[in-house]
Specification:
- This protein is mainly α and 386 residues long.
- The chain has one domain.
- It is built from 15 helices and 2 strands.
- A two-stranded antiparallel sheet has the order 1-2.
- Helix 7 packs parallel to helix 13 and helix 12 packs antiparallel against helix 13.
- It is globular and about 50 Å long.
- The termini are far apart.
């Protein structure tokens, strides 16, 4: 209930951010209020997507969830890309992966582990997710390594390589959906029962939107059997929330450079830390809340599933979209961003591989996130001293 009240309360920042822009209250005010306004709107997008998915059924509903799972981050990134903020977009991709694997899963394991001595989740699913994340790291590593080691290769070649890799990743993402929704959906059954019931209590945003969407709509159909969702309500809610997220993202990106300078932050830190927290706040709250209900299967699925969707779907879509709108974006990342992603994937895979978690493992994940966050904050200072 408290989470719902918070999400409803944050809606006030939507008109406030518009007023701040119209009446010229300053870029910093616009940036902060627009960021706060996006949080509840992202929650409503997730909730409406979940309700529509119940009506559509397991296959189409799962596909809808998989497509809209990270719609907020995609909208923010597309607007930033359209304005030429390519480095910020790349930083937000790495930040979303790091944040979900370390911050979200860390908080879930810590708080859930305090309440329950040990929590369990599917180790088979964890291994499949680990393999998929390893592929994502390879996809980021190869263009970056080639660009770093072959100085004479040139940007056009890196761009063509990135476009080709993006197509491969999208194909793999489609195959992961096929694996989770059809051929091996039974692997995702454990821990998903009553998922909708839990998430309704947890927050406005539904937790299964970023998990491998195997049987989620099936598990919720029974919950809605007496009161099926009304598409006449939820489709306009989804469209309205999406349009408002686009508006708020436009305000956020327009004010980003000036506001971050006033706050003393760099574009790298803003992209890696600030923007992912804004875009993922609703999902973060849900993952932590279901962990407190001893639903660690669901919590891990939200965290890892969101990272996979960013790496295998959102990032390649942005690469192809950049080509389409005339703002070329490749997969040649800042080497330090790549190091951070590799560290996050390694420690998350090592901790989640046994299918068990406790509060100390949550602390280790949070500590890794804190170390990386501090490194990104002081990164320009290190460069200046060097």
């Amino acid at each position: 209930m408290a989470s719902k009240l918070i999400f409803f309360g944050l809606l006030i920042f939507v008109p406030v951010s518009v007023a701040a822009q119209v009446f010229h209250w300053g870029e910093l005010v616009v940036f902060v209020t627009a960021g706060l306004g996006i949080i509840p709107l992202a929650g409503w997008m997730g909730r409406s997507t979940e309700e529509i998915a119940v009506v559509l059924g397991p296959s189409w509903g799962g596909l809808l969830n998989a497509t809209f799972g990270n719609a907020t981050e995609l909208i923010i990134a597309l607007i930033a890309l359209n304005q030429g903020l390519v480095e910020v977009v790349k930083a937000s991709i790495t930040g979303s992966i790091i944040g979900n694997l370390l911050l979200v899963m860390g908080l879930s394991m810590l708080l859930g582990g305090i309440k329950y001595k040990e929590q369990v989740f599917q180790p088979v699913v964890a291994r499949v997710n680990a393999s998929s994340m390893n592929l994502a790291v390879i996809a980021m590593l190869v263009p970056t390594a080639i660009g770093f080691s072959t100085r004479g290769l040139g940007d056009p070649a890196i761009q063509k390589l990135s476009d080709s890799v993006a197509v491969v990743l999208i194909v793999v993402y489609g195959l992961t959906l096929l694996f989770a929704m059809k051929t091996h959906s039974y692997l995702y059954d454990a821990g998903m029962i009553d998922a909708e019931e839990d998430t309704d209590e947890a927050a406005i945003a539904p937790s299964p939107s970023n998990q491998p969407p195997s049987n989620q709509p099936e598990s919720t159909t029974e919950d809605h059997s007496t009161h099926p969702p009304n598409l006449k309500i939820w489709i306009p809610v989804l469209l309205g929330a999406t349009l408002l997220v686009a508006l708020e993202s436009e305000l956020l990106v327009d004010a980003l450079e000036v506001a971050t300078e006033q706050l003393g932050l760099t574009a790298l830190f803003t992209g890696v830390i600030v923007l992912p927290i804004i875009g993922n706040a609703a999902e973060h709250a849900t993952a932590v809340t279901v962990a407190l209900k001893n639903k660690m299967d669901l919590s891990v699925s939200v965290a890892v599933g969101s990272s996979l969707q960013i790496a295998l779907f959102v990032a390649p879509v942005l690469v192809l979209a950049g080509w389409f709108i005339g703002q070329p974006m490749d997969l040649d990342f800042n080497p330090f961003e790549l190091v951070a992603v590799v560290v996050a994937v390694l420690i998350a895979n090592s901790i989640s591989g046994d299918g068990r978690s406790n509060w100390l493992e949550g602390v280790l994940l949070l500590a890794a996130y804190a170390v990386l966050g501090l490194a990104f904050y002081f990164h320009p200072v290190v460069e200046a001293l060097a």
